[in-house]
Structure to design on (183 residues):
């Protein structure tokens, strides 16, 4: 299957994110690089996320830097639950999708969960990598379908609500106030 590439422009701070989506008979892989200002410091983060054929995240790696500090994280979903840098994260047990806070690319995981759910309104709780704390924790997200690829979205714990627009393949096209796909 062919690979697709995407470029997003960050709207709330200077930044870009380039991502490559590789689809195969065993699932999908997202590989990208986000370069932006994080809390006033230059940040460059490479990410590599794998998913199974149902869109459930299997693993992720994050490598790079924020300011003078190196960043290195390994996240994986095991039979016993999520592991972050080799340590279990009990609060994320039973969650299928991973959401990396610094890239719109991982919304691909939530789109496929929405497609599989088939409901007009769906709550998805993702294992969320919070870059500010560099921890993995649950993130409740509410999606209400308002079009074929548009959803009224809310992440109450983050104080964010707006309409997310995806393309027909499930990749984010517009994340108001945060990311827009470059032409």
């Amino acid at each position: 299957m062919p690979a697709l590439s995407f470029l997003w422009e960050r709207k709330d701070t200077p930044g870009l994110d380039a991502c490559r989506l590789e689809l195969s008979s065993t699932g999908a892989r997202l590989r990208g690089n986000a370069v932006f200002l994080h809390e006033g410091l230059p940040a460059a983060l490479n990410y590599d996320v794998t998913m199974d054929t149902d869109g459930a995240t299997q693993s992720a790696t994050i490598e790079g830097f924020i300011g003078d500090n190196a960043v290195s994280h390994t996240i994986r979903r095991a039979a016993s639950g999520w592991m972050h840098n080799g340590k279990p994260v009990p609060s994320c047990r039973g969650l299928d999708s991973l959401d990396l806070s610094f890239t719109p690319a991982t919304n691909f995981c939530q789109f496929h969960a929405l497609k599989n759910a088939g409901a007009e309104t769906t709550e998805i709780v993702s294992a969320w990598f919070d870059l500010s704390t560099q921890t993995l924790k649950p993130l409740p997200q509410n999606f209400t379908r308002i079009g074929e690829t548009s959803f009224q979205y809310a992440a109450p714990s983050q104080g964010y609500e707006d309409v997310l627009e995806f393309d027909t393949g499930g990749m984010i096209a517009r994340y108001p106030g945060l990311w827009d796909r470059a032409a």
Q: What stands out?
A: Residues 55 and 112 are 6 Å apart (CA to CA). The chain is about 5% helix and 60% strand.
